[in-house]
């Protein structure tokens, strides 16, 4: 694959979840060449929409003063990897905006942020070429929006929430209720394992299993959704899944690997095939 350069510099490895290719790596900024690889291979549209699980929105400014255009086929993946390594923030805090600016990402839903980050005016970002991108930031997880008048199931406020629903092609279907409206593979699920950490007495530790059970196993509301049921329904629409271990933001690599095993168990029902 043309991502070979990421193996030594980002510990990239491939895995699978049923028929969906999964990329596991260390530093989140390198998700951009991974997404681009999927787009160049026809597994995702260019640009594509993202569902992101992350403790941080990674939406700090990115100055594309050099006019980097990742949609240009003359730009090799090796060159683009170098750009991401050298031009993006080393704390991985601006890759979302870089994805907007370079033509790889259209719109994004961000779940699981660890505090109240301020989004952009009207939840919109305008890139240097005038393109408009929707970016919605939530402290909760998808299951939190699937009960108690959450925006994923709130019929009275469907009009107000339509712009969010459109990103993932979600809506109300006659006879079946709220669900994904089609199985077009046009989304990427992007995960940062720091989403599942707790800052406890100045130490980063992994979520207790009870937290995973609450957000992914327990069914909530009259529609009996759980977080893992939502992921299962989402799978047919995914062109890829990426998982950033981010050991510096999980405490260490041992904690990252522990969280990865928990994610496999509680989020993916032990269906993720990987080697760590």
Describe, in plain words, how this protein is organized in 3D.
With 276 residues, the protein is of the alpha/beta class. The chain has one domain. It contains 9 helices and 13 strands. A 9-stranded mixed β-sheet has the order 5-6-4-3-9-12-2-1-13, with helices on both faces. α2 packs antiparallel against α3. It is globular, with a radius of gyration of 18 Å. It starts with 5 loop residues before the first helix and ends with a strand. The mean pLDDT is 95.
* Poorly predicted runs of 5 or more residues: none
Strand segment tally: 13
The neighbouring-strand order within the major sheet is 5-6-4-3-9-12-2-1-13
Indicate the proportion of strand residues: 15-25%
Query: What string, H for helix and E for strand, traces the elements in order?
Result: HEEHEHHEEEHEEEEEHHEHHE
Structural class: alpha/beta
Give the integer mean of the pLDDT values: 95
Helix amount: 25-40%
Number of helical segments with 4 or more residues? 9
Apparent shape: globular
As an assembly, this protein is single chain
């Amino acid at each position: 694959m043309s991502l070979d350069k990421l193996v030594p510099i980002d510990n990239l490895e491939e895995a699978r979840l049923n028929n969906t290719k999964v990329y596991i790596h260390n530093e989140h900024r390198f998700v951009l060449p991974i997404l681009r690889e999927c787009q160049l291979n026809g597994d995702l549209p260019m640009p594509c929409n993202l569902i992101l699980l992350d403790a941080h929105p990674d939406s700090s400014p990115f100055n594309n003063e050099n006019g980097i255009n990742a949609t240009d086929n003359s730009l090799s993946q090796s060159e683009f990897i170098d750009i991401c390594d050298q031009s993006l923030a080393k704390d991985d805090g601006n890759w979302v905006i870089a994805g907007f600016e370079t033509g790889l990402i259209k719109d994004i839903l961000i779940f699981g942020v660890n505090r109240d980050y301020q989004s952009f005016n009207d939840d919109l970002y305008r890139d240097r070429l005038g393109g408009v991108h929707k970016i919605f930031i939530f402290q909760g997880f998808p299951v939190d929006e699937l009960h108690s008048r959450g925006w994923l199931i709130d019929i009275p406020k469907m009009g107000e929430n339509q712009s969010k629903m459109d990103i993932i092609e979600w809506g109300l279907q006659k006879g079946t209720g709220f669900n994904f409206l089609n199985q077009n593979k046009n989304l990427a699920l992007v995960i940062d394992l720091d989403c599942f950490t707790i800052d406890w007495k100045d130490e980063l530790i992994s979520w207790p299993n009870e937290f995973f059970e609450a957000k992914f196993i327990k069914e909530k509301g009259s529609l009996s959704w759980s977080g893992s049921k939502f992921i299962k329904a989402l799978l047919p629409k995914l062109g890829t899944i990426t998982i950033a271990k981010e050991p510096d933001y999980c405490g260490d690599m041992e904690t990252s690997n522990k969280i990865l095993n928990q994610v496999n168990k509680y989020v993916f029902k032990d269906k993720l095939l990987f080697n760590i």
